[in-house]
Structures are given as structure tokens and as C-alpha cells.
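User: Look at the shape:
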Amino acid sequence: MATILVTEDDANIRRLIKDHLVSSGYRVLEASDGEDALKVMEHHHIDLLITDVMMPETDGLELTSDLREYGYEFPILMITALETVEDKRNGFLAGSDDYMVKPVDMEEMLLRVAALLRRAKITSSNILEVGSTVLNREQMTITSGDTVIELPAKEFKLLYKLLSNPKKIFTRQQLMDEIWGYDVQSMDRTVDVHIKRLREKLSAVKDFEIVTVRGLGYKAEKRGHS
């Protein structure tokens, strides 16, 4: 089941979109503007974002641009009352994958959502297997044998990033930019603290280890590999 975040300041439109998505089998999260959406993403993995453009605080263009800058790659469908070629151009330049003009035809929206998720190969990318250990990105759990460990969102994202790119060295700054990029209060030691917590929680998992590369950052390696 894919998780979709609907970001729209009009509660009635947001509810209408949510109802159609839920009826089609999707899990739906809600946000009233860009700032609210970022807070939701701190605690939940999402597979696709549907966002209005004209919203108070952080609008849809700014939200989309920020997410792409921070390294988020999930599909983004923009919905707006603005319909000029220039408006659409700005949406795509900000990083959106598709664009619909209000009033939205809900059946067409569902077709576009399905196509975007299919292109992003969401179903297969929600599960990552490392040896006999399974990471479930939708549930944010680590399963090793009979043990299931549920991690906070940022710890899970950090581990998933490292294990998705085994042996690749990530600097602290690279990890900060992708996982804490919009949190201006994050400090340099934030990554170190989260790595320490992960090592403690996953001490019994033998399929991989998180390696400190002195002077550079961190990498993940399968046990028994150099």
C-alpha cells in the first residue's frame, strides 16, 4: 500500500482528494501547507506528494523545490488554479513530475497517481533486504530472524540511505542535507548521535555494520566484506 501526502489549505478539497485516494486503496496523510507537510515527513515515509501551489506560509512551488534540493525523489503531483504555460513551466522547473489544473477530475487524478507510482517502482523499493535482514520503509521496521525493531523516522532514513548504497562513504554534511536539510537547528553532531543509537539498537543484527571512516563520514558494509 503506497502512502500519499495531500497538501492543500482548502479542507474541503483536501477531504475530497483523500476520500478518492482511500477508496482506491492508498494510505493518505494530510497537511494544510508546506510547513505542515515537512513536519509530517519528519515522522512518516511517503511514496507520493500531491500539493496545491497557492498556500499560506510555504507554497507548493517552494515546498517542491526544497524537497528536491534536500534529495527527496518521490513523485510530486501539483494541483493549482493557475493554468498558463508559464505557471506549468514553473511547476516543472521546481521539480514536480505532473501538473493538474483545478477543478480536478478525480478519476483522471487517480490514473495519474497510479502512473507516477508505477514509474517510481514504489512497490519494490519499499523493501530492502541485506542478508537475512529486511528493512520495510513503509512500516519503518527492521526484521532480523524473529526480532522486529521499529525505528524513529530519521534513524530509519539514515540507515536506509546507508544500506541502499553499500560501501559508499557519506560525509556528515551529505547525510545532514538529505535527512535534516530543512531543520536549521540541527547541529554537526546530530548524525553521530543517530549513528550511535542505531548501533545500540541493532547490536544483535549480524548482516551488516555501520563503519566510521575517520575524517570523512560513514558507510554501511555487509558482514564479512571489506
